[in-house]
Amino acid sequence: MNRPLTLKVAAIERETDDAVTIHLKQPLLRKVRYSAGQYLTLEVDVDGAKGCRAYSISSTPGLDKTLSITVKRVAGGKVSNRLVQELSAGDAVQTLGTHGRFTFAPQPGRGRHLVLLAAGSGITPIFSILKSALHFEPDSQVSLIYGNRNQQSVIFRDKLDQLRQTFGERLQLVHVLSRPDTPGAHEGRLTRERVMDILGALPGPQAREYYSCGPSGMMDEVTAALEALGIAPERVHQERFTPAKAPVVGGDTEKRVELLMQGQAFNFTVAPGQTLLDAALASGVQPPFSCRSGFCTACVCTRLSGQVRMREDHGLSADELNRGQALLCVGYPLTDDVRLQVD
Ligand SMILES: Cc1cc2nc3c(=O)[nH]c(=O)nc-3n(C[C@H](O)[C@H](O)[C@H](O)COP(=O)(O)OP(=O)(O)OC[C@H]3O[C@@H](n4cnc5c(N)ncnc54)[C@H](O)[C@@H]3O)c2cc1C
Ligand 1, from 21, 67, 80: best to mutate by most atoms within 8 Å of Cβ? Predict the structure, then answer.
């Protein structure tokens, strides 16, 4: 797990009426390492208590000097409104580091076709990946299919146009606007049918890899389109800002759990719908935790037996999940024989 870190705001750049990019200074002695596609976990004050929010990193490692996140206001949102409206250069933000396994690692010797699909603020990690591919995979082609309401609401509009000028035919930009205010864009939403049509008409190699990020509805449509086209799941990478389905609960009966921590065994029961962390805390056990949202991985543990299901698994890599790691704050026991070791 990364250690908490305070970062200074270098500059705030307005992208649209309701979105800003926050450029954070990289500390001289402890640079924040990240991969294109990952997010930064911010620790924030929410109603007088510590809370966490994840913001995907829009800067690109190896290319941009600042570590940048791009935040779009959510109606009634406690943190996004504060970040968009109140933060200024020189302010400090608390972070719990970078996380996430929606990552892109450029392979300079490879020539492939990266198809990126985004809507609204979902462009943030996609933008980092897009720049990484264009700059560090010179033989690859990139296509971006990007859904928004109208031209004014397109985050990174000028920067994308600039990249198109620099990289020419290597970058295809397909804008899909639900209420277009300029000619030249596809009209409508990124529905399954429209995504299939656009993908069918894309020039460039058919051997493609897909990266998508956007609101739940758009992600469901993109998933359905890729499935209908028979795209192999290992070629599809997705990031969701909101959970796909209602939270998973671990059945309708209480489960018994044993937690091994600092050489001691703690036994407690977990009520239906209760997370492992909440049940542990309710019984007086104090495992480490921070964000309570599955982002920061402070509450990571290893499953020794039994079954656990997680509501969110953003924070752990595929390898960590395969090794039986789980997060207490978003984990629910499914069986009565769950034994966990806090690492
Ligand atoms: C992995 C990950 C990466 C993310 N990256 C970004 C990013 O790059 N840029 C960005 O702007 N946001 C991003 N988000 C969303 C961000 O973490 C917050 O959820 C968002 O800013 C809302 O927080 P809030 O405190 O303003 O809203 P809250 O006060 O938590 O919620 C207020 C209301 O808004 C709804 N809501 C919460 N989040 C969203 C959302 N994303 N879209 C629509 N409605 C929502 C809630 O259900 C609630 O009704 C990301 C989320 C995840 C999980």
Answer: 80
The structure tokens listed for 82 are 């504060």
* CATH among 3.10.310.10, 3.50.50.60, 3.40.50.80, 3.40.50.150 for 113-240: 3.40.50.80
pLDDT at residue 39, as a whole number = 93
Partners of 176 in the β-ladder: 147, 186
- Cα torsion at 68, 72, 73, 79 (round to 10°)? -40
Q: Are 235 and 209 within 8 A, CB to CB?
A: yes
Question: Which pLDDT score is estimated for 245?
Answer: 56
- CA dihedral of 72, 74, 76, 81, whole degrees rounded to 10: -10
Q: Which of 241, 291, 295, 312 to mutate to test the pocket of ligand 1 (most atoms within 8 A of CB)?
A: 241
Q: Is 70 in the pocket of ligand 1 (CB under 6 A)?
A: yes
The pLDDT value given to residue 120: 96
- The angle that helices 123-136 and 157-167 make with each other, rounded to 10 degrees, is 20
Pocket lining: 311 vs ligand 1, CB cutoff 6 Å: no
First to last CA, the chain: 11
What spacing in Å lies between the alpha carbon of 230 and ligand 1's midpoint?
31
pLDDT at 13: 98
The CATH architecture one would assign to domain 5-99 is Beta Barrel (2.40)
- Ranges in the chain, pLDDT < 50: none
C-beta of residue 113 within 8 angstroms of C-beta of residue 34: no
Under DSSP, the state recorded for 4 is P
CATH fold group of domain 255-342? Ubiquitin-like (UB roll) (3.10.20)
| The predicted structure's pLDDT at residue 243 | 63
- Give 170-222 pLDDT, tens digit per residue: 999 999 999 988 777 788 999 999 999 999 999 887 789 999 999 989 999 99
pLDDT computed for residue 250 by the predictor: 61
The segment(s) of the chain belonging to CATH 3.10.20.30 are 255-342
Q: Which two tokens stand for residue 271?
A: 């009520």
Give the residue range(s) of CATH 2.40.30.10 domains in the chain.
5-99
